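Quick one from the shared queue. A colleague (R.T.) flagged Glutathione S-transferase as missing a structural entry in our internal table.

Convert sequence to structure tokens.
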Amino acid sequence: MLALYYYPGNASLLPHMMLREIGVEFDLRLVDRGQNAQKSAEYLRLNPNGRIPVLVDGDLVLFEAAAIALHLTDRFPQAGLAPAHGTAERAEFYKWMVHLTNTPQAEYRAWFYPHEHVSDEAAAPAVKQAAGERLNRMFDVISEQLGEKTWLLGERFSAADLFLFMLIRWGRGMPRPPRSIPNLHALAERVLARPAVQKALDVEGLKAPIF
């Protein structure tokens, strides 16, 4: 039995949506950030970084949302959440998964937690503003690459679109939210319309505005 350790709206949303898309049975285990449960001794045995999510798959204990997502595409190829191995399309899929985790996802850390990046708290607002400006540029590049395509890989839906949806959602409180870019808004709407995504959002108690 698979088990996903999650907190509503966190990076765990990506593997949660994927598991719903796959249709496999799994346990969903809340890590209560309100009680700092991600720093508990029990949870740190699963992820010594004290971050969410963790996926337990038999004897495998895996952290890092992107790694979990790639594992799930390999574990359940019949779900079609990634192109076939060894193809140019698979390489494009890897490109997007690595880009999304290394670039906008990483930058959000400075946007949401600017105090972690300064020794003087007075500098935190400037760090947040700079992170927001960098995120704007990142989403502009993603928009340019997406163009008029339906999905990041063209006409093929993949886990990369779920990843981008989550990152668009995270930016809903920014001065210029990613949803303000027309083609990103349209992609997010297409993802939101998927029944598996609706189920994941409902189970996590995430209400409108979603993004």
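The longest helix spans residues 124-146.
The chain has two domains: 2-79, 88-194.
Added to the table.
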